[in-house]
Design a protein that fits this description.
It comes from Candidatus Desulfosporosinus infrequens. By secondary structure, the chain is α+β, with helices and mostly antiparallel strands. It is built from 6 helices and 4 strands. The strands form 2 sheets. A two-stranded antiparallel ribbon has the order 1-4. A hairpin with a 2-residue loop joins strand 2 and strand 3. Helix 3 crosses helix 4.
Length: 92
């Protein structure tokens, strides 16, 4: 069940020959870049998703330790880009 899938910072992935934990991969995102390109604010994205602006800020600034696939997908749909594009190192 997708709703139960949580990306946990305990997992370790290979990244360019070095181990990179999920917390670092979540920090490596293109959300602010996409928002700037669309002349959109974090507050606008939060309103679109029905979330608190602080939720978006924490995700953009890499302060989240876990992110559900559902939430990542919601951001992806709202911005019109794939999860893989937004978090490029997450799937390497």
């Amino acid at each position: 069940m997708l709703a139960g899938l949580i990306l946990s910072s305990v997992e370790v992935f290979s990244y360019g020959g070095e181990a990179m934990d999920l917390e670092d991969k979540l920090k490596d995102n293109k959300i602010q870049y996409i928002l700037d390109k669309r002349d959109m604010s974090q507050k606008d994205l939060a309103a679109t998703l029905g979330w608190w602006p602080s939720d978006i800020s924490d995700i953009v600034n890499g302060k989240v330790k876990r992110l559900t696939l559902i939430r990542a997908s919601m951001i992806s749909v709202a911005l019109g880009y794939s999860v893989e594009y937004i978090w490029p190192t997450l799937f390497k």
